[in-house]
Amino acid sequence: MFVNHQLSDALGHGREELEVLGAPVPGELVHPEDAAALTEFRKRLDETTDGEVLELEYRVRHADGSYRWVSDRGVVFDRTPDGGPRQILGLVRDVTPRRRSEEELSRQAAELQRSNKDLEQFAYVASHDLQEPLRMVTVYCQMLQKRCGGKLGEEADEFIGFAVDGARRMEMLLRDLLVYSRITGAGTGEPSTVDCEAVLREVLVTLSTALQESGAVVTHDRLPLVRVQEVHVHQLLQNLIANAIKYRSDEPPAIRVSARREGAQWELAIRDNGIGIEPESREEVFGVFRRLHGNRYAGTGIGLAICARIVERYGGRIWVESKPGGGSTFRLTLPAAEGVE
Amino acid sequence: MTSRPQPARILVVEDNAADVYLIQEALKEHEVASSLHVASDGRDAVEVLMQHVRDGELPDLILLDLNMARLDGKGVLRTLRAMRDFDSVPVVIFTSSSSPEDVDETRRLGANEYIVKPSDLGAFMGIGGTIKTLLERGRGGGA
């Protein structure tokens, strides 16, 4: 029985003391909750085949009364004629710092998950419950406009106009926030097999006015089947195509929707010939309520955040390739319906 | 000789006075001759309905909000269905909830229409047209 000084230092007990106690880590120093696992570990070690290394991490009481985590690796390298262990080589290391940072990490992860969930719930409740009083404000501002417009003077008409616009804008923000918070909320439906091509056809019908007005031409590959909720494909294609129309250059929009298989995923690409995005804004565009152009373009600035959240929900990713004036290509990945080909 | 039709008896179950006012405006806009009885919550509505049964005078239409204190709209709808007297009276759900569960459940409970209260004045006024159509259908069916 030999105990090296690293172990005795780590545990704060003298080497002689440990050697007298008769085991590299004496049972009486082991944390009660880990004692059974250690007994089991030693029993399994006796039954190992030669050369097989077993490892266990457990807590040991330091001389100062605190517990330290140790990693105990053992291997039987000599046996008695009846097969029992004659010599065991045990390597006991102090792994407390690593265990503490792991515990801290997992505590932080749990905390983050909880706070995300709280935030999601908050966003949902806030946007949902604020809609009703806002509806009163909107409708009654409109009523004021209808009944009193032109009667209270030009200035009053303008004020009412501001109030109506503000309320309408807030309503759009709340509605979008509600959509955003619902993407990952509980009870939001199950994925099914969705034909992206059929969804694209519906989206083009929805956007037909904007397509006609802008003279946009949308072409596409044969689009794949993916395994997500249909409403999510709809939101993705509608947001990305609407953006391609909205942020067009002087040319009529030419939009191409293509698909490429990447393992168990499909990568969809929506390419346009619009104004493009500056390199420094390529991450920013996916943030909530981020608008690069102020009020020059209509909308709340949540469309791409919705897209990013949908894609992330399925473990995919979304990014944009673009150069200013040279159009943009938004790429995103979604799980293929039929798994890996 | 033509006789003016009797004003339609409409029971409005609504706890928000601002919405009651808009509903009246919508009926005026669509020239629906009506006499409105307003119940400000579900319990109140059930009492009014009981009185209707006792008087033998049923409303021609019920406009029902869902989120109300004391007894909510679904509670009122369940009571209506249990009483059987109102099976032929159209019920329009008029609510700020757009939840698919609410739509499904009220349909199962026999509501004829489900309309989400619009936040645009013009669209809100449309409730007058919906009510008018349902009343005319009721009159046509009964004649």
From TrEMBL, chain A:
A UniProt-annotated Pfam family: HATPase_c
Membrane-spanning ranges: none
Signal sequence, start to end: none
Family annotation (InterPro entries): HATPase_C_sf (IPR036890), HATPase_dom (IPR003594), His_kinase_dom (IPR005467), HisK_dim/P_dom (IPR003661), HisK_dim/P_sf (IPR036097), PAC (IPR001610), PAS (IPR000014), PAS-assoc_C (IPR000700)
GO terms, molecular function: phosphorelay sensor kinase activity
Catalytic reaction list: ATP + protein L-histidine = ADP + protein N-phospho-L-histidine
Sequence ranges assigned to domain PAC in this UniProt record: 54-107
Domain named Histidine kinase: residues: 125-338
EC number(s) given by UniProt: 2.7.13.3
Key words of the record: Kinase, Phosphoprotein, Transferase
The PAS domain, residue ranges: 1-52
Entry protein name: histidine kinase
Organism this protein belongs to: Eiseniibacteriota bacterium
Taxonomy of the source species: Bacteria, Candidatus Eiseniibacteriota
TrEMBL record, chain B:
Gene3D superfamilies linked: 3.40.50.2300
InterPro entries (UniProt xref): CheY-like_superfamily, Sig_transdc_resp-reg_receiver, TCS_response_regulator
Biological process terms in GO annotation: phosphorelay signal transduction system
Keyword Disulfide bond found: no
Annotated coiled-coil segments of the chain: none
UniProt keyword list: Phosphoprotein
Top-level taxonomic group: Bacteria
Protein name as annotated: Response regulator
